[in-house]
Amino acid sequence: MTSQGLLHRKHVLGIFFILLAILIFAVSFQIQDFVETSFLTLKDFIELHLVAGVLIFIGLSALSSMVSPFSVIPFIPAAVLVWGPIPTIGIILLGWVLGGIISFTLARYLGRPVLRKFMSFETIDHYLKQLPEKIE
User: Fold this and answer.
1) DSSP assignment, residue 109?
2) Closest CA to 91 of 115, 56, 66, 122
3) Nearest Cα to 63, choosing from 34, 106, 31?
4) What is the pTM of this model?
5) Quick check: 78 and 70 in contact, CB under 8 A?
6) Among candidates 56, 129, 135, 42, which has minimal Cα distance to 92?
7) Can you give the pLDDT at residue 5?
8) How many CA atoms lie within 13 A of 47 on its CB side?
């Protein structure tokens, strides 16, 4: 391929990224308005329904500790405005602990039966039998 062909591709790629940046900048105002409106709506809901807001926030925190792609981070600013930083930290930690307990319980009691449907445990069982009864 000639150097003119490579140069042409670089120009096209550069123009594409410049246009993409302009598009993102233009749309960012609409996104910012949407986020701000959503944030204020969430804040108003939490202020009107304090107990439900706490329970929902605990549930979302638990979910964020159990499901990797989900995060409670976008909701934290609204929670801090309503409850303050220290109670918000406590609520998040409580949710994370509950999520950890739920995850452990599900894995402890449902993990092996579910995994048995997908794989054989003969080798694992063989090595588990060789371990002493009380292991630290």
Assistant:
1) I
2) 56
3) 106
4) 0.62
5) no
6) 56
7) 56
8) 10
